[in-house]
Amino acid sequence: MQLLLDAISWICLLSGGFFVVAGGIGLLRFPDFFTRLHAASVTDTLGTGLILLGLMLQSGFSQASVKLILILVFLFFSSPTAAHALAKAALHGKLVPFVKR
Amino acid sequence: MYIAGIAAVLVTMALTLARAFMGPTVYDRILAVNSFGTKTVLIIALYGYFTGRPDFLDIALVYALINFIGTIAVLKFFEYGDLGRDRPSQPDDI
Question: N or C: which end of chain A has fewer CB within 10 A?
């Protein structure tokens, strides 16, 4: 049972790391601010969620897992809100989204 | 196992820093700093688990809160030109 938990948390951690790095690469390569905003907020939610899930599996039902759940819930609320605020400020700053003609 | 997670997040932090330096517009930089802060939350949590000290998670939680507040404050500064001193509200005040 413990081996199964370790295996699952190992897979979660690695896939979370992969998504975080994918988001980081997307942050660099995308042509326009709004596409980068999408790349960054995707990695914020999915990559972070998987990594924290992997950590949660490691600690099982303990106080650490409760803190991890709190961090996860807060990040799931704050990350999209920050992305929305960023997009709104950028649009007000007369930043024209990149449209391929 | 944690080493792989920490390494992945460190690589992403380097990429985010590169975007922060290269970012043409100021919003790219704010986005890079916000993303960097979220990665710091991850690094703190992973390092806490790596050294077997679960009380690092409180620091990670506080850092996530502060990072969000900081991003919203910087955005408000760039959108309204100041952090809201009392001035007569113009008609097009949002």
Answer: C
